[in-house]
């Protein structure tokens, strides 16, 4: 088994003549939390979507959990859990019905589905909300339900696209405690965010800007390399070094 | 090495179950499914009746004789005219006609009976509101027929009184109307309505069901699961096949039992071919969903498709009288062939031997649409 959960080489995505992701190369070791940072429209979501097999790369290659990104996309999907930045469960269905649906989609046996649902409901603090329609849950609950659905099949890799955007600080804290708990159990986590306090606690971070991956390393390394006191300052310096922060080339979250 | 992940019934069933739950909790789509067919059926069964009879009429009888009353009685007894007003003068007639109170006015001159008694030709004036050409044509034709008939009778009576043998009319058309002898437009409309309702309900619901997943972002979540496109599409469509068959049976039973439309041909053939059309409609819905990004767009595209199919399929206007260009367009609409099949089986009692051309065309459309729909529906977001 390869020691890399994700490895990609010169991954590129163009929409028409706009390059959303420009030759991004990444190597994420198993069992780590990798924080993917960058302003809105920098290409975070597009990169993540390519890694999940939602979008086909224009060029480049990659491997996720040892499966080829281009030819074994369906295999990858069996082994990853994904949560998009927009709430994407069925609002008309109750929390439990959503969980049951995904359990069946992932082909869990009845017994395993029951056990996993119980575990995750307890872990995500959803007890008592099982019969509530997903649409009527508040932000933090929704996020945790979506996380629970993504974790039903015990994926080796969890990919989270801005999971805490627009969620209150308390829910954000609970959510990150959950993520760390799963990382502790050996799940690799790729998470995009633009909260610097979240980035600080990642094992590794990568900063993407205008589709280009500018830098990767541990938070400590990045600060030491630049001699700056906070990640905020590091990234502001990186952006300034690029010489522009105009709106061009944006889009695609 | 590419390992194919096979179609799994478990995942298919999960999608079906989820879709059923959603349909049950979404009154809007259930409403379209249940209310639209009934509404259209009642609308076309009662309101859109192209049979013209009981036209409101006013009579200005200046003669007020036994003879003039006989004429009015003949007109009203035909069932085509209802005498609503008895007036004096053109001004009154004009007022009623302007107000839309009457469609027909009959003016009998003061010397009507006197002229008839002295065997001089008499004139009766019939005024018709021509704004609605269909009603006007019926009124003119029937008024003429009734008056001519009366005139002929009168002539025969004169001859008889002179001691002459009644003369036979030299020429007479022996008309027999086949298939729908009473020429009830209901019998023509209801079978066609089955096709129209199925097409609309099925294609709109299908398009909505798929576009909704994309619009709400649930499609993105599904794409990262191992679900196969085939499982997803078939699973999503299955409930709508059920709803479509329900709509079909609803209209069929109501048409037969309530409106008394006869089924002269094979009911089994009708059901089998309706299933074929159902598949075509589903494919249309999927096609719409591959183009539309939002439910609103899906609605607009569907209407862009439904309107021409109502006008061009022969549902209301006969195909044969259309300009050649429109006839060609009409040939590109699957509903055209299905309507032909429906009316053939319902009214003419014909079978596959007579309808094979339509059946082949319909099957061709079903295959083509399904192929394009499956090709276009990929498990990617772009």
Strand content of chain B: 5-15%
Strand order of the largest sheet of chain A: 6-7-8-3-9-10
Q: Helical percent range of chain B? A: 55-70%
> Which strand order spans the largest sheet of chain B, edge to edge or round the barrel?
2-1-3-4
Q: What's the overall average pLDDT of chain B, rounded?
A: 86
- Give the C-alpha Rg of chain A: 18 Å
CATH superfamily of the domain at 4-86 and 156-242 in chain A: P-loop containing nucleotide triphosphate hydrolases
Strand-pairing-aware structural class of chain A: alpha/beta
Helix content range of chain A: 25-40%
Mean pLDDT across residues of chain A = 89
Number of spatially distinct domains of chain B? 2
Distance between the termini of chain A: 33 Å
Question: For the report, how would you describe the main beta sheet of chain B?
Answer: 4 strands, mixed
Account of the 3D structure:
The complex is a heterodimer of chains A (253) and B (382). With 253 residues, chain A is of the alpha/beta class. Chain A has a domain at 4-86 and 156-242: P-loop containing nucleotide triphosphate hydrolases (Rossmann fold). Chain A has nine helices and ten strands. Chain A starts with a strand and ends in an 11-residue tail after the last helix. Mean pLDDT of chain A is 89; it is low at 246-253. Chain B has two domains: 11-48 and 184-376, no CATH class; 55-161, abc type-2 transporter like domain (abc type-2 transporter like fold, 3-Layer(aba) Sandwich). Helix content of chain B is 66%, strand content 6%. Chain B has helices spanning 9-25, 27-47, 66-77, 90-99, 112-117, 133-161, 185-216, 218-223, 229-258, 267-291, 295-312, 324-331, 334-348, 352-376, and strands spanning 55-61, 81-86, 104-108, 125-128. In chain B, helix 3 (66-77) links the parallel strand 1 (55-61) and strand 2. Classes of the chains: A alpha/beta (253), B mainly alpha (382). The interface between A and B is medium-sized, with 32 and 31 residues.
């Amino acid at each position: 088994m390869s020691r890399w959960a994700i490895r990609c080489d010169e991954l590129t995505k163009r929409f028409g003549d706009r390059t959303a992701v420009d030759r991004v190369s990444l190597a994420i070791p198993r069992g780590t939390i990798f924080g993917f940072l960058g302003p809105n429209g920098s290409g975070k979501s597009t990169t993540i979507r390519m890694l999940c097999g939602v979008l086909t790369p224009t060029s480049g290659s990659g491997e996720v959990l040892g499966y080829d990104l281009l030819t074994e996309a369906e295999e990858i999907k069996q082994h990853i859990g994904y949560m998009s930045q927009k709430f994407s469960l069925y609002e008309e269905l109750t929390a439990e019905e959503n969980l049951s649906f995904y359990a069946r989609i992932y082909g869990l046996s009845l017994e395993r589905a029951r056990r996993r649902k119980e575990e995750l409901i307890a872990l995500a603090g959803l007890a008592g909300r099982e019969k509530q329609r997903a649409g009527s849950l508040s932000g933090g609950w929704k996020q945790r339900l979506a996380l629970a659905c993504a974790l039903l099949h015990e994926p080796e890799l969890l990919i989270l696209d801005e999971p805490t955007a627009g969620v209150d600080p308390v829910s954000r804290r609970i959510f990150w405690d959950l993520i760390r708990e799963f990382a502790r159990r050996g799940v690799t986590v790729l998470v995009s965010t633009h909260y610097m306090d979240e980035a600080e606690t990642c094992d590794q971070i990568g900063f993407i800007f205008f589709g280009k991956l500018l830098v990767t390393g541990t938070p400590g390394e990045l600060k030491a390399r630049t001699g700056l006191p906070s990640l905020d300052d590091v990234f502001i310096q990186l952006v300034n070094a690029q010489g522009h922060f105009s709106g061009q080339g944006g889009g695609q979250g | 090495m590419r390992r194919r992940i096979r179609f799994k019934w478990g995942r298919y069933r999960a999608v079906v179950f989820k879709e059923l739950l959603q349909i049950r909790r979404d009154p809007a789509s259930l409403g379209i499914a249940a209310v639209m067919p009934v509404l259209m059926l009642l609308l076309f069964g009662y309101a859109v009746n192209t049979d013209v009879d009981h036209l409101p009429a006013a009579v200005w009888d200046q003669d007020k004789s036994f003879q003039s009353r006989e004429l009015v009685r003949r007109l009203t007894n035909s069932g085509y005219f209802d005498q609503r007003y008895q007036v004096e003068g053109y001004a009154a007639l004009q007022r009623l006609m302007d107000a839309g109170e009457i469609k027909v006015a009959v003016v009998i001159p003061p010397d009507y009976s006197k002229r008839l008694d002295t065997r001089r030709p008499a004139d009766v004036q019939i005024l018709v509101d021509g704004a609605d050409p269909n009603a006007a044509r019926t009124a003119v034709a029937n008024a003429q027929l009734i008056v001519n008939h009366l005139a002929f009778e009168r002539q025969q009576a004169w001859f008889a009184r002179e001691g002459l043998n009644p003369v036979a009319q030299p020429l007479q058309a022996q008309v027999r109307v086949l298939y729908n002898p009473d020429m009830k437009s209901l019998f023509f409309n209801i079978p066609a309505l089955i096709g129209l309702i199925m097409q609309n309900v099925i294609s709109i619901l299908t398009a909505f069901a798929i576009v909704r997943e994309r619009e709400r972002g649930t499609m993105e979540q599904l794409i990262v699961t191992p679900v196969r496109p085939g499982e997803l599409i078939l699973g999503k469509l299955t409930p709508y096949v059920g709803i479509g068959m329900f709509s079909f049976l609803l209209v069929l039973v109501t048409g037969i039992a309530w409106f008394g439309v006869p089924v002269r041909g094979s009911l089994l053939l009708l059901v089998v071919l309706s299933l074929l059309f159902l598949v075509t409609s589903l494919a249309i819905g999927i096609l719409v969903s591959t183009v539309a990004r939002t439910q609103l767009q899906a609605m607009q595209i569907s209407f862009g498709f439904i309107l021409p199919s109502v006008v061009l399929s022969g549902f209301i206007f006969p195909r044969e009288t259309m300009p050649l260009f429109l006839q060609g367009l009409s040939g590109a609409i699957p509903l055209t062939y299905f309507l032909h099949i429906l009316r053939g089986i319902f009214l003419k009692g014909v079978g596959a031997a007579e309808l094979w051309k339509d059946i082949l065309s319909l099957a061709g459309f079903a295959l083509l649409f399904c192929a394009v729909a499956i090709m276009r529906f990929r498990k990617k977001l772009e």
